[in-house]
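Quick illustration for those who missed Monday's session on complexes.
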Amino acid sequence: MARAAAPSRLPAWLKVQLPAGEAVARIRAASRSRGLATVCEEARCPNLAECWGGGTATFMVMGDACTRGCRFCSVAAAVKPPPPDAEEPAKLARTLKEMAVEYAVLTTVCRDDLPDQGAAHLAACIREIKSVCPDMKLEMLLQDFRGDERLLETVLDAGPDVVAHNVECVERLSACVRDAKAGYRQSLAVLAHAKSFRPRSPTKTSLMLGLGETEGELIQSFKDLRSVGVDILTLGQYLRPSGSRHHLKVARFVHPDEFTRYGAIAREHGFLYVASGPFVRSSYRAAELFMKGHLEPSHAS
Ligand code: SF4
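Prediction with iron/sulfur cluster bound:
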């Protein structure tokens, strides 16, 4: 069967205004003045104005170069990136205190080049932020530490309020979408261990659509994720970061109505919260607001 040509032109629902405004300029200045990288800018996120305008931002720690090369990601790859900045925990905490956000997300590149893959540095960032901004809710979007539970526990022990790790795509596509060091089953194991090690911290993951997955495969992923206790799920459209051969072509643009339907199907599988839409990304303001509400003491079971 002749394969449908990969769609090249963006459909109307994916055409957006570029971010601008005072809040965007202020946060950009604050992070750049301290040499901090936000994944919002690195990943050219279409929600930047909404999130920054609403007082949330996602910081990428341990530098802006990754030791992996996932074929959907715009982060630069390097075999041996510079060592993590020892001042980063303090700089992050100061910047977040200045921003006075209620909910912040830390994400990280992979550092397969470091003996502990950066676990101690991540834990130091979380501890410093929690001590300087005790009322702020902190979500940690983790790498997989190649499945090393001891390293995972080093970070979890630091006390993130929400633990996120992305499976990124359905199982069949994992080998061609993600770096060879990553894997669907390995990511499920990371999410399962995070839930068993810190049962009261909600776990969260993200799936990209439009990479060639079938509806059946998507629903199987919902079942797999619920089987390891995942609470929060985000579903968004894969967008090709660049025209380079390294980055996968978009197989199709999923219509917003389909996102609505997939969101409803996912909720039927028992997730605490599902955000599903073309522009939804793993760190998404609406989900964060829900989580902040969910983590309020009045919700504590
Ligand atoms: S691990 Fe993959 S998705 Fe994450 S920053 Fe590195 S290349 Fe990007």
